[in-house]
Amino acid sequence: MIIAERKPMAEILEMVEDCEKVLVLACRGCVTVCSAGGEREADILSSLIRLGMKKAGKSIEVSTASLVRQCDREYVAEIDQWDGEYDAIVSTACGVGVNFISNLRKDTMVYPALNTTFFGGSAEQGEWTEQCAGCGDCVLHLTGGLCPVARCAKSLMNGPCGGSVDGRCEIRKDVECIWQSIHDRLGSFDRSAQMEVIAPIRDWSTAGHGGPRKVVRDDLTV
Amino acid sequence: MDSIQMLGMTKGMRDEQVFLCGEEIKSDAPRLFLGAAANPFAYPFEYRAVRLGKKVAAGADFIQTQIIYNVAKFREFMKMVRDLGLHEKCYILAGVTPPKSLGMARYMKKFVPGMEVTDDVIRRMKDAKDKQDEGIQICADIINEVKEIEGVAGIHCMAIEWESAVPEILTRAGLLPRPDIRDSTEESLEKEIPDEIVVQTVDTDALLERAKIEAQEIINAAQVEAERLRKNAATIDSKEIETTVGTNIDALQSADDSGEHEMNEKERIMALDSVNLGLAALKKAYGLTDDQFEALSSFAGAHAILKREPEIANAASEPAPASAPETQTTPVIDDSAEKNEAAAKAKLKEEADARRARDAEEAKEAKAIADAKAADEAKAKAEEAKKAEEEAKAKVEAEHKAAERAKAAATAKEEVAAKEKTVAKPASDIVDSQEFAKETVLLADRSTKVTPNTYETKYSGIIRAVKMGNEGNEKVVGGCGSMPFQLFEGEHPNKPLIAMEVSDVKPEEWPETLSQHFSDVYDNPVAWAEKCVKIYGAEAIAVTLGSTDPNGINRSADDAAKTAADVIAAVDVPVIVWGCGNAEKDTETLRGLTSVIGDKKVCLAPLEDANYRTIGATAMAFQHPVVGASPIDVNLAKQLNILLENLGVSLDTVLMDPSIGALGYGIEYTYSVMERIRIAALTQQDEKLQVPIICNLGCEVWKAKETKLPSDEMIGDQETRGIMMEALTASCMLIAGGEVMIMRHPRAISLTKAMINGLMD
């Protein structure tokens, strides 16, 4: 899922400093699961905005609402019901949600309450780690299901560099050397030979290096 | 793009003259000698040579390694490199760096990922008076070591921010003067040595022989060539081309094999120079006639003309000078030759590919065989283990049955005394040495999936080694550098010692299950001690002087001292004399003892805070080891050691008795206190606790009522029960850090020894 974390309050307060009414709009998708932008977080954010503005000597009216997802046309349409009740929307969705609202509602100002960080999962309670880089050309079948693009600091494709020590990455001790793990995992499946194959130079255009990406499914288009 | 992919791209640009996108390179394609880095010290170690192989396959012509300090590991790496045949496909330059200061060495060790600075290097830098001189020497020593390793083609000297040290390093490594191809006409016959590469010495005789044959060929070719040139400089017979190209192919092959490719302009000129020099040398060496020489010169001249036409000369790949005498056969080249050559090159490539494929297949096969073998071995081992297990099971069953039989007999008689005796038999019959099933595979080999750093603890302290016994029959205890039996973490030069207890007078309170083994010597401590040594193979004797206790028999100090002295005189093994625990009386007894044993050594025990001064002083005077005994507490134990040291007693002669409890009588507390002491000693540099631990456990175990209750159905055979209690107590004490065990029952000792041997051999 998409992992995100709330922006610093000062930044959010600066966005809304000229507003008299704002709608904090939660998303019940990924950001709810990673406890960054669900209904609960939206309520907390609303209170914080009120308090922050009060502290700055201003008053603001903050209401809260939530959508099933902010990345679908149908759900975004729901925001029309609150028309006129706010000067701006503060979206606690990921960047996709903010973009979708901006795409679809010409007259609505929308601000991001979150920094969208990466595609990942919750490794432990309260801890999320990056697992996928969305590079558009998956090699996981060659690397024991562990992604060197997302999880190797250098995105190496041909095995661990000379900085791999003790299963740790040279950039920081708390970073796992994913190539060590790939090596061990392939070894445990008796597929070490895969590590001897030279991975050819990749075409990174699918990773966004070729401009904004788009998927078109002829079978689904109308 | 990563390094391997980049090598592939550059190689493609050089060899195929195409850009990565597939577009042809129309102007001069890059002429590159491709290099790559390799780190033999990064993880996973076993993958490092494979990765180097990938770089070579992708196009690396030479390799620069990470800075080498751990030569042993580098040697291992090079073995893997050779096993893959990579040293024949590229030049490997061993990376070396002189440590400029101790700080630099430490920094590299601690903070540079993928670098292994050995403790030896750190120590050498630490001990050196002139750090920079030592740094240069370390570097030169490493060069001298690595250049002997097969497959090392040269060194890469990285004197970081210290380039001025390079000449001195090279001088000490015997690498100066550098070979200079320009001023030695004689040496031009030898393999030409590019500046960066140190080539190992070649067999000069064979080389000269070859050169001679080739010289003849050159002369013949040159004569023909000269004639032809005179007639028509431009015309070259196609047949002639084939022969020249033939030689060229040979040259090319060897060049390709050694990973050489097109030379750059500068090197080409150098090659030409060397051809000219070679001709002069040939004239001198083989006494050529002027005619012959002129022919040769013309040949060279023709070559020089070609040189002025870089288009043609560039297009054709010239053999590398490094590829030896063949260089001098550098033939006349034209377009058709180039085509032939290209064809030959393609063929060669095919051949090389086929060879590579074959090699790979062979390697695979070899691996399969090895795997199968390993599997078989493992199977055999498993079967063995199973067998051993079954045997052990059978044994236990037999014992069990015997015990049951005995019990049945006893019940029939319905006489408790008789019962005790018969029941005692089955266990006491077996006092011969025991052996545990051993796992002989090293931990590191059993846990290859786990890196040692995740389970190995590094210890900063070491336990002192204390000498026990008389000169010639000394036993050393302690000296270990890691927690007990953690052989994979540190040195354990000495096995724990088990001392057999001998009582100075007939002990009244020993249960018969124990005393029966000594019934023949019960009244005679000397004979008792001798029996322990001769029959039970005791490694040490502990004479306990319980009789001197003023609250008990109150035997006189002199009498007791005499008995102890007799025992000391009778046996060769180390003797510990353990007083009754009354500080005043022990002082009297032990001081008396030291005055009657002459120059024999004895370990005096116990020294407590009440009497450590007097006995300590005596021990110091006669250089006897002592046991400092304190109530079970880390700080009290430490305090007594500090007091002893303040008195002047060297901690190298001190054993620690932390006071112990038997199984069921506070063993957990004992265990944690002992372990705590040991951890403080080994990991927290608590020097005052770095002394061996002695456990007087026999008396603790055999006073427990469980050893005295008769056999019954619920708690089993009495003797076995006692034996197991003593052996288990000892095992726990050993695992907690005990180095000397004072024990009583021969069978319990035998079991404990089996454990020690099983864990340490």
Written account of the structure:
The complex is a heterodimer of chains A (222) and B (761). By secondary structure, chain A is an alpha/beta fold. Chain A folds into 2 domains: 2-118, Rossmann fold; 133-207, no CATH class. Chain A has helices spanning 9-15, 30-33, 39-55, 73-76, 95-104, 148-151, 178-188; strands at 2-6, 21-27, 61-67, 88-91, 110-112, 114-124, 127-132. In chain A, the strands form 2 sheets. A 4-stranded parallel beta sheet of chain A has the order 3-2-4-5, with helices on both faces. In chain A, strands 1-6-7 form a 3-stranded antiparallel beta sheet. The two termini of chain A are 28 Å apart. Chain B is of the alpha/beta class and 761 residues long. Chain B folds into 3 domains: 33-176, TIM Barrel (Alpha-Beta Barrel); 204-333, no CATH class; 465-760, TIM Barrel. Chain B contains 26 helices and 14 strands. Chain B has helices at residues 3-16, 48-58, 71-83, 102-111, 119-127, 131-146, 166-172, 204-231, 238-257, 265-286, 290-307, 310-315, 335-413, 416-428, 443-446, 452-455, 512-515, 525-534, 557-570, 583-596, 612-622, 634-647, 667-683, 698-701, 718-736, 746-760, and strands at 35-38, 62-67, 91-96, 152-157, 465-468, 475-478, 497-503, 540-544, 575-578, 603-607, 626-629, 654-657, 693-696, 738-743. In chain B, strands 12-11-10-9-8-7-14-13 form an 8-stranded parallel beta sheet. In chain B, strands 1-2-3-4 form a 4-stranded parallel beta sheet. A two-stranded antiparallel ribbon of chain B has the order 5-6. In chain B, β1, α2 and β2 (62-67) form a beta-alpha-beta unit. Residues 187-202, 236-263, 309-334 and 412-431 of chain B have low confidence and may be disordered. The interface between A and B is medium-sized, with 28 and 29 residues.
